[in-house]
């Protein structure tokens, strides 16, 4: 199919498809002329995945490219592949500079380590989510939101239960390619689902608790 048909099939504008092609989110089509190419069903699926990761999941182009590359490459063990796919969902950050290290940061790092140990989570030191969580906790400390920390165990308990159910569900798919795709899509798009559900639940709880105030 030509790019116009590809756009019609996916619902993605032609300029966006060309952008995905330039950025390596979608492989090039088969050249049929100087400015023409043919695309297949694999391109349809790849574009839909790219759009889901970027527009719904909120991933950067670099993170989406890394995740898509992992989804369509092999050579790693199942555990390593899943780990790399999951890590790709969290943007890489520069090392914390000395000017960023304060008491709030040191406390946050210690709290993350303590939480991981308390939950018995086997989590690598280089998991980027550790850094992201520490930054969030340090920010809460600096803003004086100390009472938030009383909820941290509840968040961890809910995350633990949900993660176990997610891993069991994707593992039932059987083949590695399908499992990796689920890890990438469920993590990226699932974050949007979780955030939306939380906001809906917050409104419901506010109405229930404060509606008659």
TrEMBL record:
The keyword DNA damage does not apply. Gene3D superfamilies: 1.10.1660.10. Keywords: DNA-binding. One of its GO terms (molecular function) is DNA-binding transcription factor activity. The keyword Kinase does not apply. It comes from the Bacteria. Residues 1-70 form the HTH merR-type domain. It holds the Pfam family MerR_1. CDD domains: HTH_MerR-like_sg5. This is MerR family transcriptional regulator.
